Every structure is written in C-alpha cells, then in structure tokens.
C-alpha cells in the first residue's frame, strides 16, 4: 500500500485497496483494513493516528446486470461525498454461460468531516461475478454484509421480477431501490410486480419515479388547503394526466407511464377510491386517425388516446384518463394534471403543470380563478434521490399505499 | 384495508346485520369507540329488525332522552348513520404524509434591524439556505428595515457579501440571485411613525404584485431596547391584524426577553397589547440546535431510558455550557448582561427543562411548553442565604487559552476596570417534583474556560451492593452524557473487567457519535427556527410564562448580589475551569465536576 496522504476536511481519500478472487479472500482483506496501521496519517514526517471509525449506517448492495449500469451506479455513489453507506457492494454479473468466477476490488475510502473530528471510513467492494456465481446473488453477497446494519438493494435498469436472482435480492434487502421511470416499455408490468412486492412487509420499496414527484403531490394537496375548496376533494369526478411521449403514434406500450400512473394511484389511495374499471389502453376512436405518414405532431398535441380507468368514490364514478402528448420533455414526464370536482352544483377545476424549475397550480371555481401558486422544485438527479433513499429511515406509509393502489389500478394487485 | 370505511356513506336500514357491519367497518376509524360494538350488537340484539338505524332509536316513553349504555349507543349509531361517512371537512386528505416536506405559505419576511450583526451573521444566511433547499415558497419577499440610508441595490450588494462569507453550504450563482432579488430595503427610524406607514403601504403593494397573500413574519433583530417601540408602532399601523380573508401575522423576538422579572413582565405586556401570544415566537436558538431537539427524541423515542430517569436511579445531573472565547468586542453589552442573563436565564434553563420535564401528552407546541414550564416553576426558590450557599460567580483574569495569552475581563475594551459583572456562574439547584426530589442539578457556564463544550451528564447511583470487593478500585457509577457541541453524540459509561486474573473493574465508554451514523450536515439552528415560525409551529419557541418563570429563578440571584458585598474579582484565570469556589460547591456534596 502506498502511504496515505493526509486528508483535508470534506475530501474523500482512498486509504486502502486490495484485490481478491474468493469470498474468503475478500473477508480476509476486509478484516485487514481495520487491523492495519495504514489508517494512520503522516503529517510532516511524524506519524499521527487519526482515529478512523467506520460509519455505521447501512449496507448498500447494487445489482448491475450490465457493466455500464455498474459503472454509472458507482459514479453516483461516489458523488454522495460524505454520506457514504458503511459498506457498498456493487455486483456486476458477466458472461452468464461461462464458468463460475469472482473478481473483487476492495477499497476503504475515508473522509475527515471536520479538522478536529476522527476520520470516517466506508468500504467499497466492486465485485464481478461470472457464470453461475453471477446468478447466485444471495450466496455471494450475504457473507459480505456487515451484520446488524440494514441492507439496501439498489437495482438500476430493469429488475427481473419473479426470477431467482431478484427473489434472492429482495430476501436480503430491508429496502429495495428502483427507478420505475427507467423501465422498458410502458413499465406497467413491472409496476404491477412491484405492487405485489409491496403487499409484503419487507423490503420497503423506494421508487425514484414516485419520490421524484413529491413536489407535484405538494402542489396538488395545496389546491385543497383553502377551507373554501377543501370539501371539493370528496367530489372528484375526473382525473386527467398527460405525459410526454415521442412516439408520433402514441401507441400504448411505447412510452413509460409509471410516473403519471403514480399520480392517479396516489390520489385514489388518499381519497379511498375503489377501482371500478382497471387502467387499460383506450381504443383509438373514429376521431383519431392512425397517422402512419402524418407529419411530426405539433408540440403539445395529443398523440393518442392513452389509457383510461374508472374509480368510484363515495358512490360517484371518477373517470381517469392518462394521455400522451407530443413533447420534447423526457419520455414519460408528467406534463399536466387536471382535476375536476363537483359539489352542490358548483364546479372546481384544478390544473397542475410542470414548468422548468417549478410546479404551477391553478384552480377555478365555476370559471373564476381562485388559486395560482408556484412550488419550486428543480428536477432531482439520481445522486440526490439515492441520498434520500439512504438517509430517510423507515417505511413511507403513503408510498406503500400508493403502490398497492397502483396494483389495483392495473388490475393485478390483491383485491382487484 | 381493501374496503376503506370512508367509502360507506349510505344508511343501512336492514337491521342488526347491517348495523353490525357498519359498526365493524367503523372500527378502523375509531377503535376506542367501536371495538366491541360490532361483536355485541349482532349477538345481543334478540329481535333483529327492531332497530331501525336510520330512524331515532326507540326509548321508553316515560323518558325523553336515552340514558342507558344501550340507548346511548343506539342513538349515537343512528346519528352517525344520518351523517355522511367522510373525513371531516376540516382535513385535507391529500395532506397526509406530506408534512415533512411542507413549504410555508407565500409570505413577506419583514426584518427589523437588517443592518445589524445578527441579521447578517445568522438571518440572511439561514434564509438563503432555506431557499437553496427549496423550503421557501416562490412567492417570498424580504423587506429589510433599518436606519441607514441604503437603496435596494446597495443593500443587496451588502447581503451578497454576507452570503459569501457566512453560508453553511455555498450557493449557486442562480440561487444567490434568486435570493437577492427577493430582498427590498426600507430606510427609516423606528420612532418615526411615517416609517411604519410606508412599510404598511409597501407590504400591501408586495401582496398585490407578488401574491404573498397578506402573510407576514416580523423579525426583530434590533437592539432589545427597540423591541417595545417597534411592536407598538406595528400595532399603531395596524400591521398586527390577521385579516378575515386570510393572511397570518407573526412576530419573532430575539433574546434577551427583559433584564429581570419585572422588565420581562413589562415587555410581555407591551407585546401582548398588540399581538396575541399565539402570534409571538421568542427565539432561544439553543432550542433549534439539532442535538437539543434530539434530547427529546432520545428521552421519549426510546423505551429504555425513561424508566431510570428519576430520583431512584439518578444521583445527580450536571449541565455545562463552556465557552473558550471571551466577550469578543461586546464589552458594553456584556457589562449589562453577565453569565446569569446571557446563559443561565435562557440556555441553561431550557436544557434543564428538557432534561427534567415529564413526557408531554403530544408533540404539540403547548403540550411541550406546559411541561417545560412546570419544571422551571418547580425549581426551589433562591433566597439570599441559598444564593450565598448554592451560587458561585466568577470573573476571569488574564491567562492562557489555547496556547495564547489573553487579557482579563476588566482589561477588555468597553469594560469598567472595576467591573463586578460575572463571566462565570455555577448553580446548585433542586427540582421539587415527585420525579426529582432530592436530586441535585449542577449548572455551570463561563467564558474563557479551557474549551468550548456543552454537555448534559446524568450520573447514576452507585450499585447498591459491592460484589467485587477484591478489586483495588471502586467501580465508577454509570454515566450518560449527551454532548451538544462540539462533536455531538451520546456516551454511556459502564464498568468492565480488566483482562487478567484479578477482578479489577475499569470504566469503559460506549460512544455514539453523530458523525458516524448520520453524515449529513445538520441545518443551522436559525434555519430550523425560521422555517418553523413560517410554518406556524411554536414548539421550539419560548412562551411568555416560561420566560417569566426563568426570570423568577435568576432575578433573586442578581438581587442578592446587588445587596451583598462586592465580589473579589477576578477570581479565576482565563483558561481554567472557573473559581475554586465552583469546585467547593460540588465537592461539598461529595461529588465533582466532570472533566470535559
């Protein structure tokens, strides 16, 4: 090991690095990290021990089924400077049909929180597994976890729900981190599978797609904060969500709709609405023509009928439309949410739109503007979301209920 | 729950079966009222159909109102069935679960004393951090009021320099611009009523232009002597009125809240003439500190500590607020204040209250503050004799701190060379409650002590029976220490056997450090408190009666000093742990101060 340079506050320093080819070797190297005196720093030629302490937060396991996903995840974690989990294991499965092998790089990265504080260290294990070893996630990862600390499994990309590696990963996870808006297709099959997983008590699910929209939920809730508008929340008649699509034909299945569906599921779960007719692609009616050779649609133009569902609330039907709009925004981004509510012959229309760095909420009661507010909230990056996934403890009851309701909305969850 | 109870709103006139079903459906809503309801109403009703849940219940004709449990239950059930089954209209169901990320209403933040040290060191940086974290609404404006003749531009330039120097996390250029463009400056004297008329007009205009909805937070960062004046002027200009069509008005007052009991009562009365107590937020920034707030979580969020948190197990409690700095060019201010007013009356009393309070029934502002004030009121009163026995004051002379020679207090600029102001205070007191009777609390605070440290230490009693007599050393009793600053954490000391053939016991510590478990930066106390004030959460602010109760303890001490002989100051050298009398105060009881 090269002598470790003295660290300055806030700058992560690599204090230890080793390679190993078996689980036993990895375990031995991990033990050595804490026994070796390399975690001393030398200042002006005088050896001075910075009492190094391992953070005791959690284990983070990243399952990357493709090397590039593993690299991106590693970069994201590296950007979490100063809030590293205690031990991070990034598993990349390679060459599934070849012989079984393991190759691990083990690192200890330390950071000095302040000049007068002890160094805090965390360990990284970059594990590449070939052949059968890459599929036996439980057997590879379990011995490497720090006991008694919670385990978060982050599965970037498309998790293979209902397969052995995925089942093993959820088995060992206290928290599962996914990004529903990155799933292929419309993402609804995976959302339904995630909703089934949410029926269990463990793991807690943290979906970037849901968390990203917190500012929207704040804005929607704010529309019913005014005492005069509050009763309308029980008189909801129509929910319409539009999302960005770059499929000129707006065909169902081409654009990920997990984010807009979360909005509907959240509203339905909060308002205790029952699903009367699950979410299904709407028929292309006689009015809309299949634009095979049509020119590129105008920005903001609807490009297909989208999806429809019907909920029932307090005996009244609530119609739901999730509709694709031609837009330059990333595919599947929620563009606008409209609510229509009635009460004693009066009508309330709420329109929530996403703008560059804010969510804009407006409301009209019988055509008269009654609310106009901005909620600042810049688009949140993966680093920020991962930090939240790591730092927020416990189970977000509302997220669980939303996910379960999403399952019912898709007609696949329990009680559908 | 697949079938949530709120969905069921129609009345079920089918009789007992429907009745039981309804009651069962309600149990999730009201477990206390309905748990046995569903089971008994079906079983114990011999004639189904006799009860029409939609109609008033049948009661014997000779009585006009239901009286027995059964009649009352049926009457209530019928009444419930007539009412629609929805959450009360006062609640917004979409709000559930969003509380954590709640953003305050659009508002104007009116900062009086905006050119002062506090405004620049704490308030503006805190506002900028809140903005950076998206915790302020888009429609948010700051009106800075002070005497000096700045324009909006020159004042913004000033704040920009401040933000560069004092930001906890540096701001992006965009964020800085967004913060700065929300600041306006209004120059004027506080004794000129024209200032407040102009302020009123400006605020109305801001409401119109920026949609701030009439919500205003007045922040008094002025000299304390200006508090009553500003408050009275606000009242005269009608800026305190919470209008019917919405728009709250709140006022934040910085410490000191008075100089003694009578001036505190007077100040509270002046403020009370204009603002209701629910509109008043008195800042003691200690309460906004992360670790102080954690004290509540530590005590009431854990099951294992509360059972031993009483006189049966606790030997005594020590609370230390030590500063290594001197008075930092604030000689004139400190001469009139001293450690008793600067620290004892507020910070130490708050820490004492949090350590000794009973569990509040809820985590609401008044429930919490009710319990805190009970502790302060239960402190046994200081008579002149008790002051002589149980209070030690000190003033530092020249000495060495952190390897540097420092002058004595009387040689500091702005200080009377004959000064009798105390820079150190140590107090022994008791909290006369069922829980704490007979347990001494030792409080100390001082300037120019060897290091900066704030700590609460709970010293537990010794083991009742010594089993391990053959050891050379008596086992040290257990200790639980909560470090508030620096290096926040919690430490538990217990005895362990020294490895070897004998049975020697040595004290070891189990040390929890915040840095190791939570590597996130904690927000500054002012960020927490300003956000709370904007959200209308008064839990971490001091109520008028708390302030007065604390003065009731401190005022007799100061009075006794005024009536007594002059002190032999200076009586401790800078860089030591206070005068020898402070050691004697605790040694008298056979105890000693913790080495920090």
Can you count the helices of chain B?
18
What name does CATH use for the topology of the largest domain in chain A?
Answer: Dihydrodipicolinate Reductase, domain 2
Strand order of the largest sheet of chain B: 8-12-13-7-14-15-16-17
The level 1 CATH classification of the largest domain in chain B is Alpha Beta
Strand proportion of chain A, as a percent range, falls in 25-35%
Percent strand of chain B equals 15-25%
Low-confidence stretches of chain A: none
Global geometry of chain A:
elongated
Round the Cα radius of gyration of chain A to an integer and report it: 25 Å
Please, could you describe this protein's structure?
- The complex is a heterodimer of chains A (416) and B (596).
- By secondary structure, chain A is of the alpha/beta class.
- Chain A folds into 2 domains: 13-173, no CATH class; 214-389, Dihydrodipicolinate Reductase, domain 2 (2-Layer Sandwich).
- In chain A, 24% of the residues lie in helices and 33% in strands.
- Chain A has 10 helices and 19 strands.
- In chain A, helix 8 packs across helix 10 (397-409).
- Chain A is elongated and about 75 Å long.
- The mean pLDDT of chain A is 83.
- Chain B contains 18 helices and 18 strands.
- Chain B is globular, with a radius of gyration of 30 Å.
- The chains are: A alpha/beta (416), B alpha/beta (596).
């Amino acid at each position: 090991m090269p002598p470790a340079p003295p660290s300055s506050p806030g700058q992560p320093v690599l204090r230890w690095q080793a390679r190993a080819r078996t689980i036993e070797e990895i375990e031995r190297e991990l033990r050595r990290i804490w026994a070796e005196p390399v975690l001393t720093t030398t200042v002006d030629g005088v050896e001075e021990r910075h009492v190094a302490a391992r953070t005791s937060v959690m284990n983070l396991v990243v399952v990357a089924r493709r090397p590039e996903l593993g690299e991106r995840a590693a970069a994201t974690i590296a950007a979490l400077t100063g809030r590293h989990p205690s031990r991070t294991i990034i598993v990349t499965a390679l060459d599934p049909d070849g012989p079984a092998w393991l190759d691990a790089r083990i690192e200890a990265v330390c950071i000095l929180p302040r000049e007068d504080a002890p160094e805090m260290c965390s360990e990284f294990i970059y594990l590449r597994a070939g052949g059968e070893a890459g599929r036996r996630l439980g057997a590879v990862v379990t011995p490497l976890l720090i006991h008694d600390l919670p385990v978060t499994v982050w599965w970037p990309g498309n998790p293979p729900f209902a397969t052995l590696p995925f089942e093993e990963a959820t088995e060992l996870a206290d928290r599962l981190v996914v990004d529903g808006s990155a799933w292929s297709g419309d993402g609804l099959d995976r959302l339904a599978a995630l909703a089934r997983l949410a029926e269990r008590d463990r793991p807690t699910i943290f979906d970037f797609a849901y968390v990203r929209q917190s500012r929207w939920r704040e804005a929607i809730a704010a529309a019913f904060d005014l005492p005069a508008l509050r009763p309308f929340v029980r008189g909801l008649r129509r929910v319409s969500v539009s999302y960005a699509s770059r499929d000129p034909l707006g065909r169902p299945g081409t654009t990920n709709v997990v984010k807009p569906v979360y909005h509907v599921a959240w509203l339905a779960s909060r308002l205790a609405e029952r699903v009367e007719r699950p979410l299904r692609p709407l028929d292309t009616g006689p009015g809309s023509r299949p634009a095979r050779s049509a020119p590129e649609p105008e920005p903001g133009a609807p490009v297909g009928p989208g999806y429809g569902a019907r909920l029932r609330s307090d005996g009244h039907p609530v119609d739901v439309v999730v509709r694709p709009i031609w837009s330059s925004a990333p595919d599947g981004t929620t563009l606008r949410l409209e609510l229509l509510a009635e009460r004693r012959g009066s009508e309330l229309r709420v329109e929530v739109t996403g703008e560059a760095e804010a969510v804009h909420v407006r409301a009209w009661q019988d055509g008269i503007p009654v609310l106009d507010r901005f909620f600042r909230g810049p688009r949140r990056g993966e680093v920020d979301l991962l930090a939240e996934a790591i730092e927020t403890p416990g189970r977000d009851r509302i997220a669980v209920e939303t996910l379960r309701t999403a399952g019912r909305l898709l007609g696949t969850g329990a009680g559908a | 729950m697949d079938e949530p109870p709120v969905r069921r709103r129609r009345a079920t006139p089918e009789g007992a079966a429907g009745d039981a079903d309804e009651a069962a459906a309600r149990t999730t809503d009201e477990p206390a009222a309905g748990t046995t309801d569903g089971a008994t109403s079906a079983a114990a009703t011999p004639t189904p159909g006799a009860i029409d849940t939609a109609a008033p219940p049948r009661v014997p004709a000779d009585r006009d109102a239901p009286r027995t449990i059964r009649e009352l239950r049926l009457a209530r059930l019928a009444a419930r069935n007539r009412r629609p089954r929805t959450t009360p209209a006062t609640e917004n169901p979409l709000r559930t679960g969003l509380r954590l990320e709640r953003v305050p209403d659009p508002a104007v933040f009116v900062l009086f004393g905006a050119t002062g040290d506090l405004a620049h060191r704490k308030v503006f940086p805190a506002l900028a951090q809140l903005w950076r974290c998206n915790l302020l609404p888009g429609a948010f404006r700051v009106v800075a009021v002070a005497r000096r003749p700045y324009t909006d531009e020159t004042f913004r330039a000033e704040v920009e320099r401040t933000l560069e120097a004092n930001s906890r996390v540096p701001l992006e250029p965009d964020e800085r611009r967004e913060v700065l463009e929300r600041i306006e400056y209004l120059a004027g004297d506080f004794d000129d009523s024209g200032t407040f008329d102009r302020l009123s007009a400006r605020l109305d205009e801001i409401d119109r232009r920026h949609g701030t909805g009439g919500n205003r937070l007045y922040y008094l960062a002025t000299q304390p002597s200006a508090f009553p004046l500003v408050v009275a002027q606000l009242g005269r200009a009608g800026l305190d009125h919470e209008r019917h069509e919405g728009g709250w008005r709140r006022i934040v007052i910085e410490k000191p809240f008075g100089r003694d009991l009578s001036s505190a009562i007077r100040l509270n009365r002046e403020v009370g003439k204009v603002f209701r107590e629910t509109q008043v937020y008195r800042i003691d920034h200690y309460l906004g500190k992360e670790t102080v707030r954690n004290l509540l979580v530590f005590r009431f969020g854990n099951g294992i500590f509360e059972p031993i948190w009483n006189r049966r197990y606790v030997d005594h409690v020590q609370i230390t607020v030590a500063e290594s700095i001197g008075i930092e060019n604030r000689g004139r201010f400190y001469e009139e204040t001293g450690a008793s007013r600067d620290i004892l009356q507020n910070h130490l009393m708050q820490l004492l209250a949090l350590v000794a309070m009973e569990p509040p029934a809820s985590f609401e502002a008044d429930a919490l503050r009710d319990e805190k004030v009970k502790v302060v009121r239960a402190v046994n009163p200081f008579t002149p004799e008790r002051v002589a026995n149980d209070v030690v004051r000190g003033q530092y002379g020249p000495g060495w701190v952190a390897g540097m020679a420092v002058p004595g207090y009387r040689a500091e600029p702005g200080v009377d060379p004959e000064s009798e102001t105390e820079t150190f205070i140590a107090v022994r007191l008791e909290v006369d409650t069922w829980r704490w009777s007979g347990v001494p609390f030792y409080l100390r605070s001082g300037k120019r002590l060897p290091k900066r440290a704030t700590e609460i230490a709970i010293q537990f009693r010794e083991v009742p029976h010594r089993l391990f007599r053959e050891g050379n050393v008596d086992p040290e009793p257990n200790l639980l220490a909560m470090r508030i600053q620096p290096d926040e954490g919690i430490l538990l000391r217990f005895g362990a056997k020294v490895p070897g053939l004998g049975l020697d016991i040595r004290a070891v510590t189990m040390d929890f450090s915040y840095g190791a478990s939570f590597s996130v930066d904690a927000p500054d106390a002012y960020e927490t408190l300003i956000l709370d004030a904007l959200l209308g959460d008064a839990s971490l602010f001091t109520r008028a009666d708390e302030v007065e109760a604390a003065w009731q303890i401190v005022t007799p001490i100061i009075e006794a000093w005024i009536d007594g002989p002059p002190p032999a100051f200076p009586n401790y050298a800078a860089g030591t742990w206070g005068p020898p009398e402070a050691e004697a105060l605790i040694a008298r009881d056979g105890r000693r101060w913790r080495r920090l």
